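Appendix C: a fully annotated inverse folding record. The material below is reproduced so that readers can follow the format used throughout the book. The structure is listed first as tokens, followed by the designed sequence.
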């Protein structure tokens, strides 16, 4: 999951009517559930399916290894050179070039992310696809390892997160130990750890939950299993959203290990809902959308989803990048999912209005202060006023 934007500035929230803010919140969650999430799943399903088709001539191990290499190299480049992208690409330098190259960056990074997941997933499927004990073992290892590193929140994905295409932080990829700016060797090791260890553990967890649902949720009826998964997923996601205020209240009053444990349990519940939503949408697309021409189906879902996300300025929601720490937000914000879209838009407008009013107020204060100075402090003389007076004296004709 991309970095959290949980918790809008209090000065902005306090400026809204409570009912109005609640309506914006409901609209944001609905937008994430029914627009962003299906588009992200459609894109990932399209790229994954096309890779399956175009690498079909290779053995399963070779196919998985190709995706692993693409994922490692791509993540390495985008993570290690993030500062370079940030410095060279900015709309203040060349707006058109920035928008073209930044969206190309998202397109390439999205392809990298899908392959970075597909590779380990496919390689694990070779010996352990139907072995329940092995699936449980890899899933358990992933969860325990992420818990011990305080990195479980990295399993969260849409619909529990929306990442807008803002200029600030567009190319940012957080690493586990936050060593950017330190020695180059340390930073490279940090990047490798974040990509190889944390990223692979997240794949372990997702793959395990997905396959366990395959095994236990109506395994003899594929169609009904996926419809059930979709319904169960959306129901679980809805419950998780409704629980946010209570979980936030609880986390505000807890500290230390207890707060971390509560936040992680909430994340695991959200993960269950997320995986079921993804599984339902993904497999139902395979069943209903051009099942006789999967190549065309993959290309359509890929491009339609990508274009919609570009138009909504949420294409970075496609990316699985960066490592974020469990419960690092203050108070109960660790239990708030970063699903801000309309609230961000209205926040920016309100902040812009506030800044404009402050600017105008500052100008008014300066003008009033100048008048006071001229009236009560005649010894403080404006140089421009003197120059203007001298010039007027020169230009004026004597009156007879």
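Designed amino acids, in order:
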């Amino acid at each position: 999951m991309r970095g959290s934007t949980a918790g809008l500035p209090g000065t902005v929230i306090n400026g809204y009517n409570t009912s109005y803010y609640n309506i914006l919140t409901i609209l944001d969650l609905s937008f994430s559930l029914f627009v962003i999430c299906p588009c992200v799943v459609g894109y990932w399903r399209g790229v994954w399916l096309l890779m399956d088709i175009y690498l079909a001539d290779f053995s399963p191990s070779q196919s998985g290894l190709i995706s692993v290499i693409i994922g490692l190299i791509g993540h390495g480049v985008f993570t290690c050179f993030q500062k370079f992208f940030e410095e060279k690409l900015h709309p203040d330098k060349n707006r058109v070039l920035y928008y073209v190259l930044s969206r190309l960056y998202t397109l390439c990074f999205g392809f990298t992310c899908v392959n970075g997941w597909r590779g380990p997933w496919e390689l694990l499927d070779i010996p352990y696809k139907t072995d329940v004990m092995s699936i449980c073992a890899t899933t358990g290892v992933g969860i325990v390892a992420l818990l011990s590193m305080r990195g479980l929140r990295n399993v969260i994905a849409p619909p529990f997160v929306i990442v807008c295409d803002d200029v600030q932080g567009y190319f940012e990829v957080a690493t586990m130990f936050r060593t950017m700016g330190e020695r180059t060797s340390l930073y490279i090791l940090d990047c490798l750890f974040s990509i190889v260890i944390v990223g692979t553990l997240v794949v372990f967890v997702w793959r395990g939950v997905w396959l366990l649902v395959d095994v236990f949720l109506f395994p003899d009826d594929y169609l009904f299993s996926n419809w059930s998964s979709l319904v169960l997923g959306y129901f679980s996601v809805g419950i998780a959203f409704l629980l946010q205020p209570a979980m936030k209240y609880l986390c505000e009053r807890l500290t230390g290990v207890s707060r971390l444990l509560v936040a992680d349990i909430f994340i695991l519940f959200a993960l269950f809902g997320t995986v079921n939503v993804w599984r339902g949408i993904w497999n139902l697309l395979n069943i209903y959308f051009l099942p006789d021409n999967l190549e065309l189906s993959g290309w359509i879902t890929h491009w339609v989803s990508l274009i919609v996300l570009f138009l909504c300025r949420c294409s970075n929601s496609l990316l699985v990048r960066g490592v974020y720490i469990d419960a690092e937000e203050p108070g109960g914000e660790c239990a708030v999912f970063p699903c801000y879209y309309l609230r961000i838009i209205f926040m920016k407008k309100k902040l812009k209005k506030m800044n404009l009013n402050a600017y105008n107020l500052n100008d008014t204060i300066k003008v009033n202060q100048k008048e006071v100075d001229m009236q009560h402090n005649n010894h403080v003389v404006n140089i421009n006023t003197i120059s203007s007076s001298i010039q007027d004296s020169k230009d004026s004709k004597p009156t007879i």
